[in-house]
């Protein structure tokens, strides 16, 4: 039976460094996305990931939590160092190991109404993967990995080489305030949304950190506020949590603005703790009802 939502992406080993904390944990778009959906009670969901056999304990833990996980073997597991300053909107990264990319053949069994590609590095997903999946699902893509290249151990920004080729195959694109500049040449979110949809994207989700988010679709933009977080603890995975919340609501038939507000409230809760969101649907509804925005 087809899943409602499937996420495809590497689980990572992350070293998080902030002015007040220094710790190691598992991460990656697929990790944060999956735990958020599980916490919300989305049971008809699956994760397809790839990591080294030596790091399978994180998969066993996710399965014990009730997350359905399929593993494609890889020689290495992605290993990131994420360093934050006083401004949690800003992050610098180093990559200490890379996993094998996903192939169209390995993803042939994927069967879901919505598929989210959690890209981490530019070669995770080829144009062939995007085109193949787009033929059988509503395809959502996080742009971040396509806008990163590795020089030595440094993760540096770049443009997305094949963007004009693949954008017509992507329904939902999630980008942040830095990524829109690299993709479109403008840091104006509304203008960037207009450009992205002009290139074929159907719904452009543009997150702006503490300034909220803008969603652009069919010539219209939706201004989504940022909800006041209970604490500023760990911004890692907030964008992934936003994407999970958005697709969760869209899969239930909610409209763009309702889905965006839900995603924003969910990510504000994630910001208040280390690791993935582990609250509840009721917690998100409480934030929405409070209407306490920044």
Describe this structure as you would to a colleague:
With 294 residues, this protein is an alpha/beta fold. The protein is 30% helix and 29% strand. The chain is built from nine helices and 15 strands. The protein has helices at 29-40, 57-64, 127-134, 163-166, 177-184, 189-198, 238-251, 256-270, 281-290, and strands spanning 3-9, 12-17, 22-27, 45-51, 68-73, 78-84, 91-97, 112-118, 138-142, 148-151, 154-157, 172-176, 203-207, 213-217, 220-224. Helix 5 packs across helix 6 (189-198). The termini are far apart. The mean pLDDT is 94.
Q: What is the SS-derived class?
A: alpha/beta
Helix content: 25-40%
Label the overall shape.
globular
Order of strands side by side in the largest beta sheet?
5-4-1-8-9-12-13-14-15
Write the element-wise H/E pattern from the N-terminal end onward.
Answer: EEEHEHEEEEHEEEHEHHEEEHHH
> What would the average pLDDT be, to the nearest integer?
94
Count of helical stretches: 9
Strand content is: 25-35%
């Amino acid at each position: 039976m087809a899943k409602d939502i499937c996420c495809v992406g590497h689980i990572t080993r992350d070293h998080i460094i902030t002015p007040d904390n220094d710790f190691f944990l598992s991460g990656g778009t697929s990790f944060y996305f999956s735990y958020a959906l599980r916490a919300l009670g989305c049971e008809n969901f699956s994760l397809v990931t790839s990591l080294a056999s030596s790091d399978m304990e994180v998969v066993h833990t996710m399965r014990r939590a009730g997350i359905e996980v399929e593993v494609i073997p890889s020689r290495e597991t992605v290993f990131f160092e994420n360093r934050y300053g006083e401004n949690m909107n800003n992050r610098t990264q180093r990559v200490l190991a890379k996993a094998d990319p996903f192939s169209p053949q390995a993803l042939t069994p994927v069967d879901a109404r919505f598929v989210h590609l959690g890209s981490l590095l530019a070669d995770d997903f080829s144009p062939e993967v995007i085109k193949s999946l787009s033929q059988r699902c509503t395809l959502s893509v996080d742009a971040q990995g396509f806008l990163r290249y590795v020089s030595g151990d440094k993760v540096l920004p770049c443009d997305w080489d094949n963007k004009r080729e693949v954008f017509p195959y992507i329904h939902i694109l999630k980008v942040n305030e830095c990524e829109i500049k690299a993709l479109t040449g403008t840091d104006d979110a509304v203008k960037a949304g207009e450009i992205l949809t002009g290139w074929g994207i159907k719904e452009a989700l543009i997150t702006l950190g503490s300034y909220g988010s803008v969603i652009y679709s069919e010539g219209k933009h939706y201004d989504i506020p940022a909800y006041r977080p209970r604490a500023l603890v760990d911004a890692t995975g907030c964008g992934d949590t936003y994407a999970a919340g958005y697709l969760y609501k869209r899969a239930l038939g909610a409209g763009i603005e309702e889905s965006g507000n839900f995603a924003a409230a969910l990510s504000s809760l994630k910001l208040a703790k280390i690791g993935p969101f582990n609250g509840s649907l009721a917690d998100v509804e409480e934030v929405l009802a409070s209407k306490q925005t920044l």
